[in-house]
Every structure is written in structure tokens, then in C-alpha cells.
């Protein structure tokens, strides 16, 4: 069996655990994600200011809390998307008409990974080698799942709430365009040690 990187839940840092599970290594910290969240806040503030720094809309915007992160350590889909762009990975909404999303719905087992949001909790479902794993940080360790279970799992998420928020597909638009860095990281994470490796900070 392949070595699988899995972080257990700490606080509300499910976004960090989700991203690290996807990339199979401790690549992101809360500080990294908070920095990205702050950058997104600054960009949104600059766009709003274009309409006039004295406008009622701008003043109202300044009174609102960040939509990208909160004090508990929860991060938005925009932060996850920005984090993955560092690795050249694009998030494609599962509910979109994008060809990647349509292909994922038609044949989910042919994809490489899904990032899901269920009741404000981020989690990754990831293929490693020829096996699928539920890498939810609320689990005590990686959960091996079958192709059949994967399809049922995705279907259940679709019917539990808002599909736009419930499920986001994360994969490369062109698999052949993987960076050498990411290939190397993935190869390091898939070892023939015969054990499941738990990484990161345990909660």
C-alpha cells in the first residue's frame, strides 16, 4: 500500500489540512493562508475604492468582516483557489458547464482529486496510485474507498445542500503540464513503505 499523508483536524484549520492532503505534504501553514486571505481582502478593498472612497457602498464594505477568512482559522474557496494557483492547479466548480466539470460528473473515477465543502468543513478526496482515499481531517487516518463508494459519496454531497458550495473539483486542466516540482512532491509522497503516514500537527 502507498504511503498517504494525512493531517488530523486542529481547530478550524480544515482548509490547511485539505490543501496539504491534496498536495500530499505539509506545504501550507495557517500563516500562509492568512497572508493570501489578506491579499484578497486588499484587492477587494482596492476594487471597491474605485467607485469612490467616500461612497456609501465603500464605507459599508469597510464595516463588513473579511469574506476570505475569520479569526477561527476558516478560509474561503477564494483562498484555497489562490493557494493552489501557486502550484499551477485550478479549482473548477463541479456545478459549472466547464468541460472538466462535465467529465468529472460523467466519470468521477477518472479524475485525480476532489475538494469538497460539507457544512463549512473542507475535505479532500484523492486518488493515489489506483486507489481513492477520503482524507477528511476529522477522520483518525486516511480512509480507503472504492470507486463505487466515490460515486455515492459525491452524489450524497450534491444532495446535502448548495452544490456550488458543497463540491469543488480540483485537478489540472492539462495533466501533461504538471510542474516538475509537483511531480517530485507527488513521487516523494508515494512510497512503498507499506504503512499509512500521518503528517502535520496532530490535534
From TrEMBL:
InterPro entries: Ataxin-3, Josephin. It comes from the Eukaryota. PROSITE patterns: JOSEPHIN. The active site is at residues 14, 121, 136. Its EC number is 3.4.19.12. Residues 1-187 form the Josephin domain. Keywords: Hydrolase, Nucleus, Protease, Thiol protease, Transcription, Transcription regulation, Ubl conjugation pathway. It is found in: Nucleus. Its main location: nucleus. It catalyses: Thiol-dependent hydrolysis of ester, thioester, amide, peptide and isopeptide bonds formed by the C-terminal Gly of ubiquitin (a 76-residue protein attached to proteins as an intracellular targeting signal). PANTHER family: ATAXIN-3-RELATED. This is ubiquitinyl hydrolase 1.
Amino acid at each position: 500500500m502507498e504511503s498517504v499523508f494525512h493531517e488530523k483536524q486542529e481547530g478550524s484549520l480544515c482548509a490547511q489540512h485539505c490543501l496539504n492532503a491534496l498536495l500530499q505534504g505539509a506545504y501550507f501553514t495557517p500563516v500562509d493562508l492568512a497572508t493570501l486571505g489578506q491579499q484578497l481582502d486588499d484587492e477587494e478593498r482596492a476594487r471597491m475604492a474605485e467607485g469612490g472612497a467616500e461612497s456609501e457602498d465603500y464605507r459599508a464594505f469597510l464595516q463588513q468582516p473579511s469574506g476570505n477568512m475569520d479569526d477561527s482559522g476558516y478560509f474561503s474557496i477564494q483562498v484555497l483557489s489562490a493557494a493552489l494557483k501557486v502550484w499551477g492547479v485550478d479549482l473548477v466548480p463541479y456545478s459549472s458547464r466547464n468541460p472538466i466539470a462535465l467529465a468529472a460528473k460523467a466519470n468521477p473515477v477518472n479524475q485525480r482529486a476532489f475538494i469538497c465543502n460539507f457544512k463549512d468543513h473542507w475535505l479532500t478526496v484523492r486518488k493515489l496510485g489506483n486507489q481513492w482515499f477520503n482524507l477528511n481531517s476529522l477522520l483518525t487516518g486516511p480512509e480507503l474507498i472504492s470507486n463505487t463508494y466515490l460515486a455515492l459519496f459525491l452524489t450524497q454531497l450534491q444532495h446535502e445542500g448548495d452544490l456550488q458550495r458543497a463540491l469543488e473539483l480540483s485537478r489540472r486542466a492539462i495533466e501533461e503540464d504538471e510542474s516538475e516540482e509537483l511531480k517530485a512532491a507527488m513521487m516523494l509522497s508515494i512510497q512503498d513503505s507499506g504503512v499509512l503516514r500521518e503528517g502535520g500537527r496532530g490535534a
